[in-house]
Fold these 2 entries.
Entry 1:
Amino acid sequence: MAASLMNPFQQFTSTAQQQPSQQQQPVATSSSTTANTTTFWQQSNAAIATAINPSSPSSMWKSLGGGASSSSSNNASGKHKRVVPYTGPIANLESNWDPWLHHAANNNNDNGSNSINTTYLIVMANQSCIVPGGVESVLKWRKLHKQNGGGGKGSMDDLTMNLDSTMSLDDGGDATTLFGGEYDSANTIGNNGVNNEGSSGGNKKFGKRFKSGLKKAQASLAHSVTSIAIKADGGKNPDWVCASLHYLGGRNGDVVNRGMSSAIGSGGGAISDVCLCKTEWIPLPPPTSFGGGDLQQEEGKQLSFAVPLCVPDLSFLESAAAAASSGGGGDIAADNGIVLTVRLYLRSGATLLKAAAIKKEYCIGESSVMYSQLGSSGKDDVSGGQYRTMNLQFTNGMLADPSSFTYNSNPDSPPMLNLMTLPRIKYNPSCRIGWSLTDPTPMPPSSAAALRWLNMFQLPLDQGYAYPMGTTASGAAGAVILANECARESTVTLPIATACAKLFSNAAMQSQQRASMIAAQSRRREAVRSYAIPPELDINRANAIVDMALKDGCMEVNMGVVAFVVTGDKSIGGIHNLTSGAERVPSVRMSVSFQRHDSIFEEGIITGSVPLLDQSPTHPNEAMKARFCPRIMSGVPEKDGFELLHGVPGTKPNGKYVGNVRFEVENTSYANVNDNLIVPSAQSAPIEGLLELEPYLEQATAHEGKKVPVLVPAIDANTGKRTGTFVLVLQVRALLNGASSSQTSDTLPPASLGLVSVVGLDTLMEDLALAPSLDYDPPSSTSSQQLPSATAVEMRRRQVATMGTFLTPRYLQNQADGVRSNVTSALCDRYDKYYNSVISGISPDVAIEDDSHVELFERRSPRPFRPSNSRSDELLAGIGFNVHCQGLSIDVLQNGAVTPAAVHYSVTHGAPADHAAGFGFQGVEENPDLGAEASSGARGGLRRLEMKRVEYAKELEDSISGLIRSVGEHFKMRAQVASARQQAGVKMSRHIPPGVPAIAHYRSKAIECAQRLNNLTWNIAARRANCFSQALGIAVTSYLASLSDGSHASKGYASIWQRHGYLVTFEGLLSAVGKELGMIEDASIAVQMLRKVNIVLVSDDVNTSSNNGESQRVPVAHSPFVNWVHLACITNGSHSKTQYRLEIGLNPPYYQNRVPEPLKNGAAVRLFPVLFQMGVDIRQWGVNAGRNVSSQIKDKSKGGGLSTSESFGDAQNIPGINEGVGGLINDGDDDDGDEVGMADNEIGFQLNVDGFRKLNAYAHSVNPTVAGSAAASSAPPIFDSSEQIQMQNLPPHPLLVPLSESIKASAGKMEHSVLDHAAASCQKLGGGSTIFCKSGKDRTGMQVTFKEAQFIQRFIDRKDAVSSEEIFAKATTLRIYGNRVPICEKNAGEAMYAFNPLQAQFMPAMLKPPPITTQWKKPET
């Protein structure tokens, strides 16, 4: 294979099996490995990093051999592990090869290209290999063979005859537990990898005799037990067969053996048997009559293994053999080359042996093949290349013995292996089938660049599967398909998250700046409160506040109330005959308030008692004192930051506006004083006085530092008649001779560029025009005044505008300095770290934290791959976690040619939700000013929070309506005395005193509702930013994967995307209860927001980016053709109409040659996302049943019935069911102990109906059902009601009728067919598909493998309706041997699906995991 297309380290992902160092013995591995043990994933990366950095060659041995020396039951056995690509019981995952072999091949490559070539061996065996009687016949043959003394063609060497099989997968592990009793746990020491010469003389001979006798005794016992078990089974269960590939030291020369020994880390010791790989176990079919013909003609009468054998690159051994040959050493490998051995193994399927520790695997035949015969066919890649076939007869074992029953049954067709050899591709060549635009480049050969690559990505996962196809579409027979499954990390997730972080951090800074300025304006506007001086305040502190207020453009008012002097009728409050000479001077209650010129509501200043006199006092003693600093306003809204009340502007000759001080004394006669019940009489009326402060501005400088007496007329509030005088002393100060400060208000940053607007969220306050407008731009006052007639909305705005502010200065300050500052800091920090991480993959000058020593699933640095258990990490909240582009490409192998045929893509990921923010109550800790009452009630995910926000907006609107109504009633009541006041020459006040109960209630309620609504809106905006950032990276990965598939372009989908949008279906597998309900709610809004995104493909030689062009671009590291991304926000009127423009810069040659014409020249493709959701686990079953899950299980365990028609098997037969189920009820994922919380059994159905409506509109738009209409002439599809005033009532599209029926049947049920039909419909419409659960590994793994199995079977059968049995069988193979198990290990550090048998019982049949892949843990007590 050409070096330009192959990665030099292509044999590895990150699952290489741990091997012992030269000094260490092998270590037992199991699922209970301690957390601090270095994982196999990072061991593989560490091995590669060491191989490309030879300056520290010993570090590889240390990193791979260390960390596991704590325990090993077979340390004393002297046997080293075989080179098995993937540790664990489940599989022969050939994505990784042993790091030692890689290191050796890389350092001994003669061609200097650093490329490593691996080969697939597709194994089939003719029907003569089907042993009649299975293991029972093998045992009889072995017994007969020993009695006859062996010899002949079928003679087996000691290794092959050894009952201790060399096929066990896990040295030292408990295979019974791991394999569910299907594999041989007794043969864990049968590797015989290295012979250690540690003894000598008689002791050595005695040891050999002892071991030989013990071995014979064990073999005899095993033979007897196996025979009994087979007879008891009576043939009910088939036996099992598999093939394996071995390197045998006895069949290779000493030089080559030493090379292999060093490669596997055994220190150069003698090599006996190294098991390189194996196929899956398949059931042994019953023997059939022989009809003659060869293997390809006897379809259905052969053994076909789906999992190919994978031959590692052993070119380093060929180099050693060539060197030995040239040196004339006489080594057999110098003349013959490297010899490999292919074997067939058989094991019994008897029931009694499934859990027995003595079950055995028997080698029934082996054949040798030269390594040189298995090499590359000379083509650069599989697709479009060639393959070789070879037939191998058995040279050893029962199948090679002419006297065997099998051989004699068909002498014309001896047992034979048919091998198909072809290159195994780790990295699909660019622009070929199976490759995606989001794939990273193969690791570069440069050491420095390769290290940057390894620091950015984990190596890809891949696995091939071979299936006989039967007759092809052309009628030819004998074709085989190779389905190559590959899961790769996406190169665009981190750059897009970085672009989102940039956009949202800028928007958050805009919002914070606006909030800070509004908070400052509020302090100026609310100067009476902000600069009020409590009487008890220290004089120095008080003076400091006053100085600050003066510099801020305020006026200091230092006022003292001396007395209230009554004139005329000396009767007030029931006190008669006042005399100034009385020994005891009576007093009255007085309240002092301030009337601002921008609000109708007065603000209280002080309340107290003052003397009530009938003549002016001779000594002005101040009975009440007040010191405050009101704002000096100019009457210009742009300068003041707020508008004056209607009718006020122009009333002050000096153009300066301060306000009035109002004094009020209650003039109340009391009656009906019984049982402490006091009722004011109807004739009572307050006495009030008004002091305008503006006239004293001119005197502020002249009288500075002096108190001057002031007499304020006191009048009857009803009649306007003067009843007395308020005697005051007044001191006023202001800077610049009473002029306002030269400091003017800065222009507020537009709210349309703030975070709330950028995430497309209306504040729900726009129509009310509540001040201050923190997150929206209020309508222009000039434009509204020019309207010929005010609308009801405008009239309401004017009314609300007179009522002052509804966000208190304390709340605004907390928002600016606390809540919004925290969000802004987090987003800015996120952008900095994301960007540095991206640049570190490109430039050697930028370094980030080295976390290579940290377990992969515990890493928290920004990377394209984010492990699922990092959900609670706030820094990573913008990156979609566990995102993989999983492709399945199909090649047809026939007549020596490899023909690319089809490809299937799915993007798998965790739920795009704000896990870091949680799903509990929102905003309590961040906003203590709100109080518990104002903060409670808002919990859950975005969907629920936004519904709660609508409720808050309705409460606010009701409070405002009540306030307006109460104000109107107050002024209506005062209108009754307006004429009397006018006759007395007294103006009617346009202000409302603070003591009106109804007004005070509604105003307080309105302020509380406004602050609660504003706070929740901000929290939702921040949450939207995080969820959208995740969802966008996922959707773009799907779009680019579809764009990479040439078949989409050839079918004309590009023009459909350009006109109608790119359809992307999100298939959710979450349960609508507890935290997962919140995840559904977050995901539904995040997916909905994707509709705002327009994607534009740009050639990198054209600068069409706006907003500072290249400076806004985020580079994409290690992508062959995607150079950068740029995200911009386009505001258009209301916030909900916000759009996003995502530009993707492509390599110019790729853009010109590969991008379809409809997508060029700035064409924008709008995303058309739809979400379908169906819970598939035990908790969703509980939600559907409408009862608590635990109680139902307990009822079932006691024999009670179930309240549902769904069957889940016999719970009493599940281990541990009666030991307490509390610890078992979790979500089927890992680490956070999701509690059983709120459930919603309607949300799934509602989301599916909504998704169907959108998909139906898309289908009608793309493929109209009206006769004669064309897709190109149809209108773009309707997404939601905001895109069209009146929705069309479309009938179900013919393509979507099955989906419609499934959704109708899904109400209250676990109906998986909804997802199945949705995915099929999306594929037929040319869209992309993504799959997610909470973590994106377990339930997601079941769904994606089911879809892949469907795809394979439909390709084989060439029809949509295929056998469920065949699909389930293939899905099981994919789940055991495919990419999903290592993805679990990447995320959780354990190569198991996080299901237990109880959870699996409740899952739909098509999603149930194979038992050997799940874990069972006894619940904690």
Entry 2:
Amino acid sequence: MKRKALAVALAPDMRTLQQEALREMNTGAMTGAVLLSYFDLGTTVAVGFTYLQIGTPSSIRGANTTFGMLIGSLALQAIMNWATGQGVVAAVVTLFGGKPVFDAYHVIYDKPVGGGQNPVAVLSMTRAYEVCFDALPQAVMQAIILVQLADDERDYLLWGSIIFSALSVSYLVAMAEVDIDTASNYRRAFDQIHGYMPDSPSARRAVVGGILLCISGFMLAKMAALSVLFVGSSSSPVAASWLLVEFVMLTALRAGSEGTFRFQIAGADTFLGSLIIDIVLYVLSIGAPFFLLRFPGYLGPSIYLLWCLYQLAVNPIMIAVGLQLDGRKEQVDIELSEGLLLLAVAVAAFMALVGFAVSIAFMNHGCRKTFLGRLSFRQYLAELWESRTWAPIGKGLDASRADLISFSRFYWPPNDKVKAWLEPNWDGWVAAPPQWFTSSFVQQIAAGAPPEVLPIAVLQDLAEKHSGKGVGQEESSTRQLSIGASTRQPSSRQFATTSRKELVQMEEKRRANRAFTHAKQLGIWAAALVFSYVDLGTTVVVGREYLSMGTAQGRHAAHMTFGMLGVSLGIQTMATHWTGQGTLASLATMTGGKMLLDTFHIMTGRNPAGDVTSGTALVGTRFMLVVLDSLPQSAAQMFLVAGLDDANPSALMLCSIVGCVLSIAFLVATTELDIDLSKHYRTNLGTVHGYYVENSATMQGLVLVGTVFFVMGYLGAKLISLAILTHANFYVAVGWCSVEALGLLAMRYFAEGTWRHHIKGLSGVVPSLMVHVVVYMGMLATPFPFLRFPGWAGPSVWASCIAYSLAINPVMAYVGFTLGADRIIAVKLATVQILLVLATAISVTGMAMMGLAMEPSRRHTFYKHFSMRSLLDELWDTRELTHMVDGSCTAGTDASRADLITLTSDYWVSIDRLRTWLTKWDEWEIEQPSWFTDPDIDFQARVVNHVPEEALPPTVLRKILSESQVLSRTSAKILSESQVLSRTSAAEREYGTELDTATLVLMVKELRQELKARKQKRRRKMAMAATKAYALAIAISYTDLLGDVAVSLSLYQGKTTRNESYVVIGITVFSQVIQAIASFACGHGLVATFVALAGLKPLLNEYNALSDRPLTRGTAIDHDNAKTETRLMLVLFQSLPQGFYQCLVLLQMVGRDETPTWVQWASVVGAAISVGFVVADTDRGVDTSARRRLDAPSVHGYIPDKTHHALLVSLGTILFVGGMTSSKWVAIATLATTSATAAGSWLVVECAVLLVLRYAVEGSWRFLLHGPDAAVPSVLIHLGLYLGSIAAPFPLLRFPGYLGPSLYCASACYQTIASPLMLLMAFRLDGDGRLPQTELWAVLGGTTGLVLLGANLMGCYMVPEYRKTFYKHKSLKTLIQWMWTERETCAFGEGPDGSRADVVDFAAWTWPPSDQVRAWLEEGWANWEKEEPDWFTDEWKARLRHPRVPREALPPALKRTFDAGEVAK
């Protein structure tokens, strides 16, 4: 009994020791793999530079190829990592080459990657990608270059790089094999294959060594053979043909063995996905044949060994063929002898065979057969189907089979076995769902299983869901299939009496229709994608052709072409981000890949980030491409080409214009097809949409082709006439278009009764005008048929504009020629008129095709007047079914009307109709229908804020008045939601039934007028504050930054200071990079990271702090902290280093009798003022922060409330910090000029002494916050504190835990005294007497005077009670103890529990004694789990589980809970 009790007591500690041991073992292995990866990467870069240094054309090409392949490899790996669901962070880290470290970190600390993926599996994928996309291609490329170099051009680095690539690849392969084969889940899932690694450490090392030797030899032999074959057949396709034949042969062997070439993983078993994976398997099999490739479904045991032996045997033949082909050339390229090459291949092959033999000899004997014999994946799954009982979710045979079903349907057991398993068990699973019987399992069965094996309950449910569905409609996803589909409830089923045979036929027919629709849509998407990228590519090529003309006119045309392209991508990127599609979509847009991304989302059924669906995103992307890219580019190129001479316009330029026009027409047509066939638009707006004939592919094709002809002719005619008029007189063309735009605005106003847009969020003045500009541009050149929709242009206005535009084109051309266009362009008026007639005829023909092939009942929607108000009135009475945002359909007029009032209130029905409908409000509050509470519709807020008072029911009127009363009573205090609700209920009772409706209406009207006036006043105040903040941010961002750039340019122009200019710009770039890294590490997001790289982080911070819709995620506190952190980094990493270095350069120039420019002096002075201003403004913001004053009132609060006193304190801070900064720059730069060693030693000693003093004061050198209290962050933060103390002493540094009051005061006094001492030492070391001593003493005296003046101003005008916080000793533990025992209120909440929970946010070394913490946790934990206070989050609880938290600070029960959680994890 005692032994058992002792074992139970020691179990948590033993588990901790085991976890630490496992972590140490993983750390060693991971560190080795990471070092090898980066060493390989470094040698690749070094080899590229070596090729550049050789200087021959072939070596330069080799260098460019090396770097290009490296960049392409990183990009491809990033795409693969994102596509496999590892997330945006993993993809971005991959682009910078940091994925191995990223994955190693997750493995060591056992953290899932992305959406919860196994870190070991992710690391294995990363290694496979490295091998396939980087190491193997780079090694082959370097071998190709190496065999062509002469003996005197080869050096050890080139040989070493290739050999080390082989070692690196083999080590990666060996580590991946160890990780996979020893993983318990793999061994239990596929025990017949995995488990060859022996338990004996010595035997396992032998197996790993054998793998290293085998893969290294195999790879070196194949590199030699491939390099000779590629070089020898450089002028013929022999090498490519050889590889293609081998690939086809391997694919055929796999298909013959498995019965299909499709991949085994569901989702990756598509034709394209399987083909890509087949390519990856082939590349790995010829260069680095993982033992894992013997797994059935990859190569399989029957192919793996024979294929590897074939590859070793064929290498000498490849060398012989390559040498034979090379000998036929006039000049031989291969410099190595045949004997040497064959010897190298033989030695490498021998290494591979020996390594394989060693691995076979020492592996577990039972697994040797997995390298021989025949076992297909389909056979293996059939065996596991009958025998395996293990499963990742659940236990038993059924759970195992559910897991096996998750593989590709091409490998499932025979249909009769699957049917025999599903049919009799389905109803039982529905009645009592097992753990594995999830919605995803049901979806997989319903979507992947052949119809004949589906349970009859699923067939009935599918038939019911898809009944009456046409081919052209959007698919009703099988993900809506109910888990409760069971034959035990047949009464509610429409198909309960339908036979199984009929149900199977119905499902087969539905799937065939879906496949046809998908194939048709896929073809359209592919064509649109090709058109858009051909258009983009021709634009770039044409721009380069303009440049190649070599004339000023050509350069101007090229700059305009590329400039428009850049502006277009920038605007599209901003629109993508503002619509909430996420960072990845924004980055894809920036690089021109948005169409590809949206098409990928459509094809895979995924949605982008945010609320935007994939279909909506694709439509928006196409529209932006047309309006912002293709249309302006085609117009500009038509204008540019028309202005060139006869000999200059090339066929490519003309083809580019035609291609733009055709691309625009096709994008318009396909966008219309998607919109009109959309279930959302046909259900909600069937009065207008539905002109495509639903069940006829022929008629749909005719309408599509007609739309292409219509838009192509219309656009071509408009481009011709507009280009001629613009060439004749630009101002006349602008005036003409402006008059047309105003005329269209007037027509829209008369048609609708208002010019504001009907979509909420776009009904403001500026958005409505911007929308009108877009509508006009569309009607000018690309009249999307959806623009006929009421609220955009409307049917009558759309038809009128079409007729007017086609008729006015000849007039525009005639006016252009009248104004002198014939003197600028070479084309005659008669030719132009013929082209216009031809284009108009094409457009009219397209309109005729559309009219004849469209649905006859919808033809009137293209010309008959129908306003938005009329449409809403009709829908208000007639629409009974509404397609909601989430894809579901809701029946009833109430849901329909709730959806309609999401539009702009200018278009709503009359007040009487609204009032009549809203009388049901009390019923809705009781019934709570989904549309009434849906946050996407936001129905209640729309009614409360926008419905006229006369239409509101009394309940809503009282609600508005009561909420306004509660808010006015609590304006000075933030309440929780429950408090607001309780007070609202009390306030509602004050407005009882004694007040009639008319009185309530009058009160609400007055209240709304008052709130509107307050809102306008607040907006004006916010505008003034924003103007000030933005001006400050711009000054901070650019004044100092532009000064540094100007200094760099000034130094670059000097003969002796060019190197210094590189250092100045290098410091600037380094500062931006450090800020970007810090922004990413602090969780500010990718947007903030990239903005920091551009030097715009202060501007972004101000926008986030002031805007209601910040560009990055986080609370107001987060944005305030980000602003403070950014300013600290600006001071520490940009202003201080730049000021010091520029002072150093000034002294060096004076010593050489050179005259510094005024830009250099201005930059140094500006940097000092910038540092002082940033410190003063930042510290004022910190000290006046309500949150900080609430958290630490004994430290924060020295800024007085009186405005002029506060300004004087800020002025004193500026003088104090600016003077200290300037004096330290002068002193340190002077000493560094005479002796860099002396200056460096002085600073190192000071930094070390400060660390010792901090330790003496606080009892620890670690940082005070949880997380950064680790060793490395604490050292880095101490370095920052030291830099701040010597040059920019933020008053914030007096906070206990940073420097503390006593150290802050002592440091400021010491630094003031130390500056003259440093100057004296510098003069003593200045043997040549080149330093201007008088001037330096004068500068130092002046800056010291500023320090003293600033300190006096601060001391005189700050709040007197806080003067002691600048000098009186107070340790952090003293402050923490006060927070623990006395503080009652803080940002975490009210009461001692909130204050103590805030203390846990600090590092564990700052906490009160462990017994106090343990008693508090033990007493309150049970209550907190019941009440769940705001601070009691998973993140807060995780801090208690941190390794640096003392175990004795946790109650025993809590320790057991945490230990049990670790075991479960």
